[in-house]
Amino acid sequence: MKTLKSLLLLGLFCITTYLIAQSPTIKKTKSIDHLMDTKIPSLLKENNVPGMAIAVLENGKVIYEKGYGYGDKSNKVEISSTTGFNIGSISKLFTAWGIMNLVENGKLELDAPVENYLVRWKLPKSEFDHTKVTIRSILSHTAGLSVHGYPGFHPDDELPTLEASLKGDNGPLIENKAVKVVLEPQTQFKYSGGGYTILQLVIEEVTGQKFENYMRKSIFEPLNMDNTSFIIDNKILTNSAKPYDKEAKEIYLERFTAKAAAGLHTTLQDLSVFSKAQFVDNAVLTQKTVQKMTTIIPITKTKRSAYGLGYATHNFGPIKVTGHAGTNTGWEAGFMMDFEKKDGIIILTNSSNGKKVAITTLQTWAKWRMTQ
């Protein structure tokens, strides 16, 4: 999981610049499928990106869903809506849904100190007030916690335990970073993947289940997301795209102990299902809870973004989207919704060069939206 320059932030900045440059009078454009069919293939070729999957929502409905290019170049396996992708930090959005499901069911309190729920591991001692490290503050990245992001492991590596990872014992090939309180909690925004690793442990402690099993039974199955998993098993691997580096060379699919922060594998089809669930009461969360999660917490505001509970909101000129972006080695993804209009876009790529393609695709979508 990369630690700087999120796809969402960069993409929206470019969108803003793009829209400002447009004529005040924008003629009605062609259909979204024609636009994307015209634009994306050349983008993939120019940027040496093997493949991409994209979905567009309008008024709460998926109006466009398509794959382009290859999930496996050597075997000419084309991308489809059922091709699997790692989605990096968008994993945090689903972890937030898992936490809020427990809140709705009375098993967690948002403003309780997180250590009330921890037995297997405790926050290292610090000069700061640990009672303010609450579930709410961790979800919103205001808990003052360390560890921005996590690199992944080789498939042949033995993964450290969750407790070992929190302590910073990640083995010789991964930088050792302990999760600890480094700022006074609830005083400012500090992005922390480490905080979401704590939430992964909270879910295990409270439910008595492995995190990945709880998420499958309580989140993915009720939402009918049949090809979404934190477990990289044969089913996932069979349908997964291959990841590629910036030179378009195939690389290995990273594994994570910090699954809650960066380890989710899913498909465009399943994310399309999830996108529609944002706007209605569903089998996992009520609309009241989703609205609470998307409500901006004032101290998280920066010049270009703000956070709620798991959700990031970016507001640049006429464009306001809420969701999350994701970056892991060989993958770039974006899940961005306009909750006022119930519009949105989902972008998945299997390349470390995917950001370039995604930004231009975002620009195309933004211009098209302005004509509707």
What does this protein structure show overall?
The structure is a single chain. 33% of the residues lie in helices and 16% in strands. Residues 16-21 and 23-28 have low confidence and may be disordered. It has helices at 7-20, 32-46, 91-104, 135-139, 162-167, 193-207, 211-220, 234-239, 259-262, 268-277, 287-294, 354-370, and strands spanning 51-58, 61-72, 77-78, 84-86, 265-267, 305-307, 312-316, 319-328, 331-338, 343-349. The protein starts with 6 loop residues before the first helix and ends with a helix. A hairpin with a 4-residue loop joins strand 9 and strand 10. It has one domain (7-370): Beta-lactamase, CATH 3.40.710.10.
What is this structure's SSE topology?
Layout (H helix, E strand, L loop, with lengths): L6 H14 L11 H15 L4 E8 L2 E12 L4 E2 L5 E3 L4 H14 L30 H5 L22 H6 L25 H15 L3 H10 L13 H6 L19 H4 L2 E3 H10 L9 H8 L10 E3 L4 E5 L2 E10 L2 E8 L4 E7 L4 H17 L2
Antiparallel strand pairs: 1-2, 1-10, 2-3, 4-5, 6-7, 7-8, 8-9, 9-10
Helix pairs in contact: 1-12, 2-12, 3-6, 3-7
Describe the main β-sheet briefly. Answer: 8 strands, antiparallel
Briefly note the CATH topology name: Beta-lactamase
Secondary structural class: alpha+beta
The CATH top-level class label: Alpha Beta
* Total strand segments: 10
